[in-house]
Amino acid sequence: MTKTLKLVSLSAAALIGATLIGGCTDQTARDMATQALDAAKAAQSCCDANTERLDRMYQKIMRK
């Protein structure tokens, strides 16, 4: 459930960022939206990496 909540919040941030990028005429606002979208993607990849690492650790423990 926590992973799903993180995905939903990051997806919302990405959607808002994409909306801001598409609807802004001010370059500064577009740059800020792009940075927010990049941060959301980085956070998601970090979560994915941690999940994979924990899954590997769990599988290793369960094999013993």
Automatic annotation (TrEMBL):
PROSITE patterns, alphabetized: PROKAR_LIPOPROTEIN (PS51257)
Family annotation (InterPro entries): Oprl
Name the record gives this protein: Uncharacterized protein
Top-rank lineage group of the source organism: Bacteria
Keywords: Plasmid
